[in-house]
């Protein structure tokens, strides 16, 4: 765990609970001696981020309630714009604007990016900026998207953390399964052809 992430998330209340549960010494090293990096997007993070077709985004309301929203789109709709910057075109949805309104009052956000098939997870902490209008989102808009964009969303990353894969249940998208299904389909077609050939040969000998 990089120091940047632990410094933001290991609050006094969190550290007190770690002390009560016996894990304080284990995690103290991440604050005291953890790697300084942790807010920079490296090659591994860039490849992972831009391969996602969705992510979970959390915000906090004026009343203190957290709110989690799923953001989805074509693979690559979430773009790395710099070593500490990611962005995406915000598509038109149901127009409740809960996340959007929350971010007007508190620009902090936390993202969880999942790769269920390979049991990988990346957490991102950052601050959000908006530029309203479809024209502003044009440079971030993926060609294969089906919905219009309402704004450009820019996230200035303050911390990143590759999270433990334990308890991530593997799940697979249609795109991930398609090569395997195609191979099975070819095998099935071959077996059916061989079976038909055997039936014809049997018919000749009866």
Question: What does this entry look like structurally?
Answer:
It is a single chain. The model has no long low-confidence stretch (mean pLDDT 91). This protein has 206 residues and is an alpha+beta fold. It has a seven-stranded antiparallel β-sheet with strand order 2-1-5-6-7-4-3. It has six helices and seven strands.
What's the SSE blueprint?
Layout: H1 3-9, H2 12-21, H3 24-32, H4 43-50, E1 54-60, E2 66-72, E3 79-82, E4 85-91, H5 98-105, E5 108-115, E6 120-132, E7 149-162, H6 174-204
Antiparallel strand pairs: 1-2, 1-5, 3-4, 4-7, 5-6, 6-7
Strand residue percentage: 25-35%
- Give the structural class: alpha+beta
Order of helices and strands: HHHHEEEEHEEEH
**Mean pLDDT across all amino acids:** 91
* Proportion in helices: 25-40%
**Largest pleated sheet:** 7 strands, antiparallel
- How many helical stretches? 6
Number of strands: 7
* Spatial order of strands in the largest sheet: 2-1-5-6-7-4-3
Any low-confidence stretches, pLDDT <50, length ≥5? none
Q: What overall form do the CA principal axes indicate?
A: extended
Distance between the termini: 73 Å
Radius of gyration: 24 Å
